Structure prediction request, 346 residues.
Amino acid sequence: MTSELQSYTVDPAREPDEREDIRRFLATCGLDYEAGVQAFVVFRRGHALVACAGLEKNIVKCAAITPQLRGESLGLTLLTEISHVAHERGHSHLFLYTKPDCVDFFRACGFYLLAEVPDLVALMENTPIGIRTYCDRLKRLRRPGAKTGAVVMNANPFTRGHRYLVEQAAAACDWLHVFVVAEDVSLISYRDRYALVAAGIGDIPRTTLHHGSEYMVSRATFSAYFLKEKGLVENCCTAIDLLIFREHIAPALGITHRFVGTEPFCPTTFKYNADMREWLMGDVSPMPPVEMVEIARTECDATPISASEVRRLLAAGDFAHIRRLVPPATLQLLETKYRAPRTSAA
Prediction:
């Protein structure tokens, strides 16, 4: 009986004993502990931990129930409790990662399937109209044409290389849709990145600029992208992000091609580009394929231009070299807002 259960919230950063108990419990359920989880709801029967669910911003992770209690409606109670924690933190739209064989269980608890990688992972959300509402907005921006392209960029910051990619992609298409990653965890704020892209591509014809969303290169769909500087490329799961693009976003806008620049520097982005061939073009979805087109990066002094190099130069205060890699609007913003403070001499 669930009446014997006690529940409470755990802050894993401040309660190491609870954190280790949760880690051990998850292991018995065949799940890994996620270091990014900021809060857990746990249920105990006596001293035994019998259920838990974690929350990383608006993403439910590490949800598990001991097998002996899975027939006692504890799942609904568990997700209700973690939803209350999310609401208290300002999150109403929730995502949930689970194993494919648990999809029906979580569907009964009010979650709806977004994308599934067979035998590996599924992503769900707590609304039946979330992705549909987003795609309905996109459909209003659809343009006619036999070849419709897309570019997705973080632009942290926007460089002459980003400009070159959009120019080349737009020239190869009847229409091009450009998306700016909306997750606000980069050095350059999302507001500034979007403004720089708008200024940088505004004169390129047959191009529509879009705000990003939680359904594209976000912590929900592709968390490894935002952990890449910590060397966690081995945990990179790109399939969910790319399947959402192929099965929802591309059909809404009639996208037939997705353009990317070659990636000689970042392992995570390199893997993401390689995975596009499988998940956008392969026989892994009932939806039409989206052809991935890789464009060689433009260079400066025989070196491909990259945003990571601009960030390195910015940390060093080397604006003479930055000036050669970025458009004037980017240079001005970096000089006025993101210049590293000078340290006084001892």
